[in-house]
Amino acid sequence: MSNRIRHFRKLRNLKLRELAERIGTTPQSVSRLETGHMTLSLDWLNRIADALDVHPTDLIDAPPQDRGVTPLLGHVGATGQVEDGPLGDIELVFPAVQPVAVRLLHPIAGYRAGEVLVADRKGGDPGRAAGRDALVELADGSRRLVRVVPGAGPRGGYLFVSLDYSQVFSASEVRSIAPVVMSVRYL
């Protein structure tokens, strides 16, 4: 069966060894799974999907028209010149298992008004969101876009700082965390 394990492994900048460690196997087994020389069972799919933070069905190869595949024409240099090369296609997918999104009404912290931020509810562990922007739901049900600051809270816990620095929330005030994994800027 054709699969997209290598695609997602490379997107995450993982070496064979690193993915193998995450799923409790050898780099050789990961290589065989990637190339189809080893049967890709549901157990393997689930373990690999969890390690790569994708949905298991994302690992199954689908025809290009069923994915957001677009031809990559080249790289743009400092002068604006498009340089050709063996580039192939680029796939435009949300790098999230449980994606949620917000649209910004005003510019904030380097983001532009109108930009869409995509976050992943599955990545809700503060440790995985440390040092990153995240959408959080507070105990009162409101939601905020914050920066997750590790080691700044009581007993070395986490603090959640609004991107305009006007508010700080403690971990006890936060019900859920969804790290931002993608920004989409429409022109």
UniProtKB/TrEMBL annotation:
It holds the Pfam family HTH_3. Residues 5-59 form the HTH cro/C1-type domain. GO terms for cellular component: cytosol. InterPro entries: Cro/C1-type_HTH, Lambda_DNA-bd_dom_sf, TransReg_Diox_bact_type. The keyword NAD does not apply. SMART domains: HTH_XRE. SUPFAM superfamilies: lambda repressor-like DNA-binding domains. GO terms for molecular function: DNA binding; DNA-binding transcription factor activity. CDD domains: HTH_XRE (cd00093). Coiled coil: none annotated. Keywords: DNA-binding. PROSITE patterns: HTH_CROC1. This is Helix-turn-helix transcriptional regulator.
